[in-house]
Amino acid sequence: xAGARKIIIDTDPGQDDAVAILLALASPELEVVGIxxxxxxxPLTLTEKNARKICELAGRPETLVFxxxxxxxxxxxxxxxxxxxxxxxxxxxLPKPEMPLQDxxxxxxxxxxxxxxxxxxxTLCPLGPLTNIALAMRQEPAIVPRIREIVLxxxxxxxxxxxxxxxxxxxxxxxxxADIVFRSGxxxxxxxLDVTHKxxxxxxxxxxxxxxxxxxxxxxxxxxxxxxxxxxxxxGTDGGPLHDPCVIAWLIRPELFSGRDCNVEVELxxxxxxxxxxxDWWRVTDRPKNAFVVREIDADGFFGLLTERLATLP
Length: 314
Ligand code: BDR
Ligand code: CA
Known about the structure:
Layout: E1 5-11, H1 15-25, E2 30-37, H2 44-57, E3 65-67, H3 81-84, H4 106-116, E4 122-126, H5 131-139, E5 147-153, H6 169-173, H7 175-182, E6 188-191, H8 193-196, H9 203-210, H10 215-235, H11 245-252, E7 257-262, E8 264-266, E9 277-279, E10 291-297, H12 299-310
Parallel strand pairs: 1-2, 1-4, 2-3, 4-5, 5-6, 6-10
Antiparallel strand pairs: 7-10, 8-9
Helix pairs in contact: 1-2, 1-10, 1-11, 4-5, 5-7, 9-10
The structure holds beta-D-ribofuranose and calcium ion.
């Protein structure tokens, strides 16, 4: 589609990352110029493979997939097999991908794409730890003013954390990278747990994917059946939070969400609260506003959009 918004999806699939990728590939408003994999939910060798599996599921094997950082900037990798299963994509039995992994490193791809594009042309959509994005900013600081916007899933404030009492997984895994990104000056839209915990994969919503009667619909239902198992027990809800697709939905239908501009800083020192995103929601400091923090979602509208778009895939 002429005028489609160009995005790079930086991701660690992950069942919810997978649904985010499917939504982006199914949406004519967006052009996915590349998918960059990072270590997070599972190690990099699995996340890059999972990204390719999902492109093939969507019937889009021409999508460019790159592998980036295999560990956080300064810390040992923490993974989340307890949530996503051993492969990161447990649930459906997806075939081994045949499409190639690109030779270029993901960080080089991000840098080269931004330098070659017009300023303000490329939006970054990080769905995992922010390692690749921070490395790209470090490698070529000239990319920073060229990024149109960073729309990311990460952090939490009113809801607390999901990997420690105060930290959300993506930020906790690489807090130093998150700090670089939040201080970069790039316009940021943040989808924290405060909003994603309102996007629950209830039985009715998952059945709607299955009832599409397509291979993508069936695989999505199987992914979510697996994914919600852990969270349902943890939170006592009907369904688990579908975090990462909120990022893509925001780009397509921002009217489904609401939030406000705030200062957000990442805790790097305290052992107790490492990786906490401290959001000045009530604006009690003079610290500069560096992120649009989303807190509310029209969850029925969001799942309606997902179902409508996934219906267009094979
Ligand atoms: C985030 O962590 C991962 O487990 C999910 O894919 C999501 O990006 C939620 O905290
Ligand atoms: Ca993710």
